[in-house]
Amino acid sequence: MKKTLLFVLFAAAVAACGGSKKPAAKPETTETTPVEKKGPSEEEQKAQAEADAKAKSDADAAAAQAALSEQYEAGKKVYAEKGCVKCHGEHGEGNPKNPPVMGDKALPEAAPKTAKLRKGVAFKTAADVEAFVKAKMPLKGPGTLSDDEAFAVTAWMLSESKVAIDKKLDADNAASINLHAAQ
């Protein structure tokens, strides 16, 4: 009988525990303090700001160069279509009757003594050249060029004469582009 009693007690204990299966262990949880996220350091912020500024500057420079290239192409077209080539030559070299408009001898600061149209007109800046082109050219239709056409052909002539232009030539910047070194 002792054996039966032990068996019953053992069976009752096993049944109370859910049989022979062990209960699944509960994962241990530990409470943690949330990690405080820190923003970028002052140095990192400065570096990022500099990188952003450089990227914007590079994009602005690329856009300026694209606009200037477009203006040069328009200037070439104006030069050919408006008759500049007939008087000043294919490469702006001029001839005995008409002055060069491109190259080393083009657009001197003081008008040559033999100049008729340009008498008394100095070419110090790109604005001076553009104003002359707009008012006096083409010879058989002076004053017929639009502002855009006059700026485009001036920009192209100056670039072909190795005058440094870094963005599209317009009324806002033409006066700041000096054609001749200070003497």
Task: List the main descriptive attributes of the protein structure presented here.
183 residues; mainly alpha; Cytochrome Bc1 Complex, Chain D, domain 2; 5 helices; 46% helix; 0% strand
Question: What's the topology here?
Answer:
Layout: H1 2-16, H2 42-81, H3 84-88, H4 126-136, H5 147-160
Helix pairs in contact: 2-5, 4-5
DSSP E strands, number: 0
CATH class of the domain at 57-176: Mainly Alpha
- SS content category: mainly alpha
Could you tell me the strand content as a percent range? under 5%
Shape: elongated
Number of helices: 5
Low confidence ranges: 4-14
Question: For the terminal residues, how far apart are their CA atoms?
Answer: 130 Å
According to CATH, the homologous superfamily of the domain at 57-176 is: Cytochrome c-like domain
What is the CATH-assigned architecture of the domain at 57-176?
Answer: Orthogonal Bundle
Main beta sheet: strand number and arrangement?
A: none
Under CATH, the topology of the domain at 57-176 is which?
Cytochrome Bc1 Complex, Chain D, domain 2
How would you spell out the order of helices and strands? Answer: HHHHH
Share of helix among residues?
Answer: 40-55%
